[in-house]
Amino acid sequence: MILKKMAMALLAVGMTAGVAAAAGDADKVLNISYVKSPFNLQSIVMKRQGLLEKELEPLGVKVVWHEITSGAQQAQAMAAGSLDVGGVMNTTSIQMARGEGNPIKIVAGVSRPTGVFAIVGKKGGVADVKSLKGKIVAGPKGTVLHQLLVAALAAEGMSIDDVQFIQMDIPKAFAALESGRVDAALLSANTVVNALNSGGTVIASAEGLVVPKLAVAASESFIVEHPDRLAAVLRAHDKAAAWIAEHHDEAVAMGAEEQGVDIPTAEKLFEWSHFTQRFNQADLDSMNDDLAFMLDNGMMRNRVDPRDIVLPGALE
Length: 316
Description:
- The protein contains 14 helices and 10 strands.
- α4 crosses α5 (91-99) and α11 (248-259) crosses α12 (263-273).
- The protein has 2 domains: 28-114 and 212-314, D-Maltodextrin-Binding Protein, domain 2 (3-Layer(aba) Sandwich); 117-205, 3-Layer(aba) Sandwich (D-Maltodextrin-Binding Protein, domain 2), CATH 3.40.190.
- Helices cover 50% and strands 17% of the residues.
- The protein is globular.
- The chain starts with a helix and ends in a 7-residue tail after the last helix.
- β6, α6 and β7 (164-167) form a beta-alpha-beta unit.
- By secondary structure, it is an alpha/beta fold.
């Protein structure tokens, strides 16, 4: 009986140690999303060259990359605790998440890619915004592309209710456009170029309607609990940008390979991206404009202050 009790006690100790070890192993992992579209060169270079892994190695932390392209899905993953850092998110998604009580913050800038987002009509179909009335439009909800569609319609005295808006991620929306199953699609970067090459028409781009702002974001709990890991992420992000500046041709070629486009297209995407590592007052003002627009058009329910979303270190 005594031996049995001793054996059970030892088993319990072993199980406890095993659980603790597993928890310790899990705590030594940084989960970050890998978002290469529209043309996020910093993320591409950071991952391809293992810059983040090198920065976290002294801390004994392993990097796990997750291909989550939707800003809304990244926000949900951070809320669930399965993602620490949103490698690239648009500020529209971040503001929407904050408005619903999801405590995520902008920790660095990525780009202001005004040229890479567009509403594209199918070959031989709709060519202007007014003609979208009653038509089927596919694209990702809760994103800057969603905002672009609403803004384009509003500029012509229409609302989202004037079109049949179907939720689809960008690759599926592109495929639906190519097959003629939808009249227009909300596309970005190489999918815009590919759609145009197939005879599609740009109905509207972000120019003059919205100012897309892409950022690196992190959950508030990660920021508070792991400042050393956050610092490593920011160092890797800045080192990637410095390498891109010093090795332009090689960086563009790397981006072209990741995106599956030729070099001239990659150069065009680079030019359209307007990369930045930090945001400025104009970006905060633009976020306020975005907020007012989304509240007025039913895309958000609650007001948030952009300054509460952006860490001081993410500003110039």
